[in-house]
Amino acid sequence: MSVIWRKVWFDLWHNKVRTMLAVLSIAAGVFAIGAVFGMVDQLLSGMDQAHQAITPSHVTMALTERIDQNTADRLKNIAGVEDIAVSNSVTIRYKLKADPTGEWRAGLLEMRADYEEQTYDTLQLKEGTWPEKDNLAIERLSSQFFGINIGDEVIFELDKTDRALPITGKVRSGLVEPPQFGGNAMFFTDAQGLERFNIPAGEFNQLRVRVTPYSPELAREIASEIKERLGKERVGVAFTFYQDPQEHFGRIFVEGLTLVLQILAVISLIMSVILVTNTMTALITQQINQIGMMKAIGGSTGVILRIYLATVLIYGLLAFLISLPLGAWVAFSITQWFLNLFNIDYEVFQVSSRAVVYQALAATLIPALAALWPVLTGAAMTVRAAIATYGIGGDFGSNWLDRTVERIGNRLLASAYAIALGNMFRRKGRLALTQLVLVGAGTMFLIVMSLSASLMYTLNTDLNRRRFDIRLGFDDPQRQNRVLSMLRSTPEVAEAELWYETPAAILKQGQRLKEAGIGTNIIGIPAASAMYKPLIIAGRWFQPGDGRVIVINKDTADDNHIQVGDTVTLNLFELGDAEWQVIGIYRLIFNDPFDVTPIYAPLEAVAAATKQYNEGTRLHVRTANRTPETIEATFLKLKNMFEDREMEINNFEASTMIQDREEAESQFSITTTMLLALAIIVALVGGIGLMGSLSIGVVERTREIGVMRAIGARSRTIMGMFVLEGILQGLFSWLLAVPLSFIVARSLANALGQVMFDANLDYQYDFSAVLTWLVIILLISALASILPARNATQVSVRESLAYV
């Protein structure tokens, strides 16, 4: 072994605590890089591969009326259509035979013409048998979430009988809303089974279309042509869902989040790099005398560089060995959990090659670059300067800051603790680097918590625009006077309105325009209504006396260059066409691209345009006592009351605002949890940095500790001095992080809101998080100080006075 490697080995082995802290500080950042970038690669590729495997349709259309196979075949003649597959989908209510007195639950029943010969959006049989006649299959996620298994028997309310149908299979669908996010149970039957629900064999209400050659523009053109042809046969399109055949539709939900996570992972790595700089600065400072001696006996600058850069390289390699398997395991586990939410199997352990390369660079090259400045500074010193240097901060007290700190300590603290305050400022460079990490951790934590608070505040603000507690959608239009008279006899109802909703298509100069979501519905609201008013960003909301005026979504306006004052034509299919003037543009903060996009208009004008006077399809109710218990009880009471009178409720349009809030919060909880997890990693990096800084301080002040022991200082006093130094550093970082986060959080929250939701958030700084972080940072500081402080108490007088 050469002299260089003997020196490197000696420094590593005889300073195990410093080695451990340096390795852990690098490993934390390298782990974050591996976990996040590995997850991103596997998540997106896993989603895309699973999506491509089901042969996705390019356009899925839900029809307002059923069509036969001949009609579907005629649509295949449209230029650019590769093929069209037909199917059925109906909303149902169900309960289990094992719980006959239980409540009816909302669900979805789907039918494919031939399960053995599927064309597009193919289903996979995971267990049991395909459905046939009186046997059902259940979607796998629904089975897991609702606890419905093979062998269970289900009663459907739509069937109008108490006959229970057995579950004989479990099916995986690539197009299912996760039940965790509010999705309902999904069942499958065949054509014979669907006849039980008064849907004759050979009639269908869903089209799955592929175009050739694929392009998003061609898919929309074909969809428009299909809508035109169906409209001539008085068949409307309730919604249109577009899919890219190469990219999973769920990408839009995760791409913004993954971008934010990658940014935070890089920040975590930067903080780890700062710790490397801190560690190497301390090491060089501590060994200045050794550097002088090596130079005096002929050691060149290059030799010095090789010694200390080799030390950094070994730190990095050890960190790489720790972080590589841990990062790969975490990346795979999170990917598997996330993909399971999207009903994607991901069982074979995989490692992202890109993440491994990034980790290797992050563990070796980046720490070496970070250490280059302190190493070059030490290696460039002359023999005389190196040997003459007193590397313990002997110049403390030589400037105004040192004297100010000393005066404050002497006035407010006991002598031992005043020393702790002075020691904190002794190595100002190291203090600055340690504070940079701690302040960064605190700032990130407070920003993440403020982002979470802003998400919830924005959600609350948006939901508070809905001044109703219950919404019920009817399958068919109902008479206003009948519905409202029934509600007048219900004491729990304080106020109610019946709105009218129907599918629509927007045309401008005869051309069908691009839709922001999966379709467009016009919703007629009483002009004087106080039940709801969206966020208006241009123009105005309608008022009593307005005629054919509409308020449209910002995305629709932007995509089609529509401005306030423009006139467009609304094609209401079998209800006719009419021209409307745009008087306002609204913004949906949480815009789901898989929802129908509303166009709002005065109810009176919609009734005149559709000739559907005194009718409505959507009931909105505000209860007298707005407690959660009253709202839920009234919701069930109204549903049962209407359905007892054969006024069927659309289960997908029936909910309380409490349920809507819970579903929205569950979607955001994943985002905030993952952001918080990275903030915690950064906090741990800060704790490691503080521990390293204090440990180095113990080594540097070994002789001082011996002197204090020699004049009677007790172990408790010495330990308290170092613990207080750590706590003071944590408190100081908190004082800096709070105003910094307050300044930065608003702009960063808006930027993150644009990335994730394409909208600025309603900003709310989380002041409660300020106290939370104070507790956390004091706890981290105390824990990080214990080991260095304990080591300080182990130093004997003889060892300390012999220390060089």
Can you put this structure into words, describing what you see?
It is a single chain. The protein has 804 residues and is α+β, with helices and mostly antiparallel strands. It has three domains: 3-47 and 251-458 and 665-802, no CATH class; 59-242, no CATH class; 470-625, no CATH class. The protein is 54% helix and 20% strand. The chain contains 24 helices and 21 strands. The strands form two sheets. Strands 11, 12, 13, 14, 15, 16, 17, 18, 19, 20 and 21 form an eleven-stranded mixed sheet that branches. Strands 2-3-8-5-7-6 form a six-stranded mixed barrel. Helix 2 runs antiparallel to helix 7 (251-286), helix 7 runs antiparallel to helix 22 (715-757) and helix 13 (400-412) packs antiparallel against helix 14. It is elongated. The chain starts with a helix and ends with a helix. The model is unreliable at 391-397 (pLDDT under 50).
Keywords:
single chain; 804 residues; alpha+beta; 3 domains; 11-stranded mixed sheet; 24 helices; 21 strands; elongated
Short description:
By secondary structure, this protein is α+β, with helices and mostly antiparallel strands.
